[in-house]
Design brief:
With 610 residues, this protein is α/β, with parallel strands linked by helices. Strand 17, helix 12 (403-410) and strand 18 form a beta-alpha-beta unit. Helix 13 packs across helix 14. The termini are far apart.
Length: 610
């Protein structure tokens, strides 16, 4: 028999075991908690479910049954249910009998979580009209809508997860994170991401621990909509319909849908809008093709006959709440319509931030530094469309602080904020530069420091203005001589430097310092661009460089246009003078088939397999 002290310790252990077990159970059933929130949010979650139905009573019954069986915690605000019943195209008695049976079922259906409203349309508006007319947000604080078609079935925990996503990203987090969500995200999808709409795009391949990601495709099988983007879409839709425009977006599967089904469907319109504005959708992702909402794909507008669900519905037993986390927005992965990863919101304000961007570039390719300060916005967007078409990924846009630059960064283009980066450079270098031509000197100094970083990372570097168009994979390098490291085109504003041991010795800290110290003389000489300033400095140091003007590798736009009926090679790099008017640029490029931007985005989605 153990001694008394040991018996007491054994008895204490036996008493603690049940308490430990109860503690573990309570932790297992803990509700979701966003770990990155600075403090618990006190925001309500005003939600209205918009259920769209027509003639499928069985489907409607299943959908409403799953919605009413879901978990809705007390004290979280009402959850309203609005059902939209479309009218049959005609007034055949058999059709009207189906509508009456559905109405009788809806009248008798009990919804205990908020108001129930049934909208019975007097005319047939089809699936497009059902979606488009389901909501007009009064203001941004009005709340959210969760739209389901009647063949959708939801998980019992759909609301719990959806609410936590909204609270974690729309309301919680830092001010900058909330702004990015409200300006760049249109909603949350609970369906499984099933396919890539961009032709020849990548397969959807996500790691098992990825539970949330961003993707521009709308999810029609359980989609939460944010008020501001939906309101923008409604106005955009009206404007484009009034002009007789069509939602054609080359390179997208949705264009084929529209050509086949026309105005019966609404998704090509929304996809075109999202592409134009650069919005994203938050998607949930679970193992083994699990989802919080599934479509039974019953026979109707989208399916000629029932196809059944292609995902399995998650329930409480298959969803481990402790393994659901809501990391900061910047830690989530973003993908485009080709399911190629996009890195948004890269606005460089500090020189040390450049290393992270350069490490993600393709080392075997040169890097383009594109000055966009004096380039019309549409011309810049057209240039970026050519980059996308040609799969040019190694570029950084350099420009003054502007809303346009922020928008480009939001869409995944790396942007240098010249003003802030110049302040960073002068703060650690001790330089004090005050001139009447500050903008030019700022950009010259910032670009020179970026070139230095690029050379250090082993990148050959092009410095170009936005007054150019690359029509082949990169600006032509046919003129590169292995015995020379520097090339300039003073006419076009091009500058090319190879990354070699000798160029790094020339382009060192002393070179940058001397470049900054001579800024007053540079301004007095009234230089036009970076190339002229740097070439003068190279001349002073006795550094040899080659001029590519007149070699036929870089063509002036008017020259190309004047000879477009002859054998002029439009696959060369094309430039135009900086004082060329926008209308002339657009007209000339359009005549050459090189104007490929529409509104704020490219006319086509071009996928390149990663």
């Amino acid at each position: 028999m153990p001694p008394p002290p040991l018996r007491r310790r054994l008895l204490l252990l036996l008493l603690l075991l049940p308490l430990t077990f109860l503690l573990l159970i309570s932790l297992k059933t803990t509700t979701l908690s966003p770990p990155h929130s600075p403090k618990p949010t006190t925001h309500s979650f005003p939600l209205t479910i918009k259920l769209l139905t027509f003639n499928r009573l069985k489907s409607l019954t299943r959908c409403l049954g799953s919605l009413s069986a879901a978990r809705y915690p007390d004290g979280r605000g009402p959850i309203h249910l609005h059902v939209y019943l479309d009218h049959f195209p005609g007034n055949r008695s058999d059709d009207l009998a189906i509508s009456r049976r559905i109405l009788e079922y809806l009248d008798g259906f009990q919804w205990n979580f908020g108001e129930k409203v049934v909208h019975y349309r007097s005319v047939n508006v089809g699936l497009q009209g059902q979606w488009i007319e389901s909501w007009w947000p009064g203001d941004e604080e009005e709340g959210f809508v969760f739209v389901v078609e009647d063949d959708v079935e939801v998980s019992r925990v759909w609301y719990l997860v959806l609410r936590e996503v909204v609270m974690s990203y729309y309301y919680a987090g830092g001010e900058e994170e909330r702004r990015r969500v409200r300006e760049g995200v249109f909603g949350v999808s609970l369906q499984r991401a099933r396919f890539v709409p961009g032709k020849h795009g990548n397969k959807i391949d996500l790691e098992n621990d990825t539970k949330l990601f961003l993707y521009p495709l709308v999810g029609t099988w359980g989609q939460l909509l944010f008020p501001k983007p939906w309101k923008e879409f409604r106005l955009w839709y009206d404007e484009h319909k009034a002009k007789g425009m069509k939602p054609i977006l080359d390179g997208m599967i949705s264009t084929g849908w529209y050509k086949k089904m026309g105005e019966k469907i609404w998704t090509p319109w929304f996809i075109k809008f999202i592409h134009s504005r650069g919005y994203y959708n938050i998607y949930t992702h679970f193992d083994n093709e699990g989802a919080l909402s599934v479509s039974h794909r019953d026979a109707g507008v989208n399916y000629g006959r029932s196809a059944g669900p292609d995902s399995h519905l998650l329930d409480e037993s298959s969803l481990d709440f402790n393994h659901l986390s809501f990391p900061p927005l910047n830690d989530l992965k973003w993908y485009d319509f080709c399911f190629r990863e996009v890195v948004p919101h890269r606005v460089l304000t500090k020189l040390h931030e450049l290393g992270h961007i350069l490490s993600s570039m393709q080392k075997e390719k040169p890097l383009l530094l594109v000055s966009i300060s004096k380039t019309p916005e549409a011309v810049t967007r057209n240039l970026l469309c050519h980059f996308e078409s040609l799969n040019i990924r190694n570029y950084i846009l350099v420009g003054q602080r502007s809303n346009f630059g922020v928008d480009l960064a939001r869409r995944g283009h790396p942007v240098v904020d010249v003003d802030n980066l110049f302040e960073d450079i002068t703060s650690y270098s001790g330089l004090k530069i005050q001139t009447s031509n500050t903008e030019l000197i700022k950009e010259v100094m910032v670009t020179a420091h970026i070139v230095s970083k690029c050379l250090g990372f082993g990148f050959d570097s092009w410095v170009v203005n936005g007054n150019m168009l690359v029509s082949s994979n990169y600006p032509t390098l046919e003129f590169v001589d292995p015995t020379c490291d520097f090339y300039v085109s003073k006419a076009s504003g091009f500058f090319f430097v190879r990354s070699t041991a000798s160029t790094m010795k020339i382009w060192d800290k002393n070179f940058l310092f001397r470049l900054a110290k001579t800024h007053q003389q540079l301004v007095k000489d009234d230089p036009k661009n970076f190339v002229i300033i740097v070439s003068k400095k190279l001349d002073e140091q006795g550094v040899k460089y080659k001029s590519v003007d007149g070699l036929g590798s870089i063509l002036q736009l008017d020259q190309v246009n004047a000879n477009k009926g002859s054998s002029v090679d439009t696959k060369k790099t094309i430039f135009w003078f900086s004082d060329t008017g926008f209308d002339h640029i657009k007209k000339s490029l359009d005549e050459l088939g090189l104007w490929i931007v529409e509104e704020e985005a490219c006319r086509a989605v071009v996928c390149h397999r990663s």
